[in-house]
Amino acid sequence: MKNIFFTPGPAELYFTVESHIKKALNEQVPSISHRSAQFQTIFQEAEENLRNLLALPDNYYVFFTGSATEIWERIIQNLVAERSYHFVNGAFSNRFYKIAQELGRSPLAQTAPEGECALVDTGKIPTDVELIAFTQNETSTGAAHPLEDIYQVRNSHPDAIIAVDAVSTLPYVDLDYTQIDTAYFSVQKGFGLPAGLGVWLVNDRCLAKAEQLVQQQSIGSYHSLPSLFAKAQKHQTPETPNVLGIYLLAKVAGDMLTKGMEIIRNETKFKAGMMYQMLSEHPNFTPFVRNEAHRSKTVIVAETQSPSAEIIGTLEQNRLLIGDGYGTFKGKHVRIANFPTHSKEHIILLVDKMSAIL
To answer: The domain 4-11+260-355: what is its CATH number?
Structure first.
């Protein structure tokens, strides 16, 4: 029996990935030039499948980077001259805020206790901030901002660029892309792919902002929005990219399209419901996010009465691998991925094994 990875990234590979890798090797995809017609076809397939899968509007563009972590830097460099505003509800949203500081900007933050989401008070957000950042699904704590909060901020600050970290929630989350300006993710979570590829979705407002800033200051020499856009028009990238990763993303996005996003979303909700019910009823576990409206459906985090290492070790004996707590919560939490790659049978098996831990 193989291990089943419920770790929140890298996670279990999507069930079709193995066959796609074999086909890619037969076609020698990892060796092709990123300036070749073959790569342009791969790029175009990935872009079109993502556009259809996520229902992207026509004024959005799909760019490929090394990781979602890289995109934090590119967002600040390309879209912020002075001030950004960050809703911080965990380690990763806080890291984005810190990167803005490290790049010499003057960011502001509204910070919530970990395990909660910051209450949106639009009156506290200055009218002159250039970008407002949400981590829609905080992977470290399992707290998920309701989409209505994000859209409320868009309505109150229409001139600000709205950026959404959807790293551990896409493709599940049903974003209204007309209410935001940029979203991003990395493929080793919800898309069930090997790590090493970030995907940056931007609209034309972002491109216009970058073109404005480049006249005033450096927006970086690597993966600037103008350079990404110029190459993407030819279905290329500025540098030698992760060609295999883009190929696999194209294929898996196509597989998900065939299955249907409505089915994927309904299954995700069903699986999350089973998991949260078990955690709420079990004497050894407590859902870390108390407010049910803020509980992630894709990264489920629980406090443990006994050391988490014992629980992780017990499950590992059954080939079920779950994540430890993040940062200061290491040893006190478990984190469980519930991505499209995890079947209902996978979750039922995990629920049964965790229920038996006393």
So the answer is: 3.90.1150.10
pLDDT at position 358 is 76
Tell me if the pTM is above 0.90: yes
* Contacts with 316 (C-beta within 8 Å, 6 or more apart), sequence order: none
Q: Which class in CATH covers the domain with range 17-258?
A: alpha beta
Contact 169, 296 (CB under 8 A): yes
Query: Alpha-carbon Rg of the chain, whole angstroms?
Result: 20
| Strands (DSSP E) found in 17-176 | 60-65, 84-88, 108-111, 131-135, 137-138, 143-144, 161-165
Q: pLDDT value at position 164?
A: 98
Query: What is the C-alpha separation between 42 and 37, in angstroms, rounded?
Result: 9
Nearest-angstrom CA–CA distance, 85 and 111:
11
**Checking DSSP bridges between strand 108-111 and strand 60-65, what pairing results, if any?**
unpaired
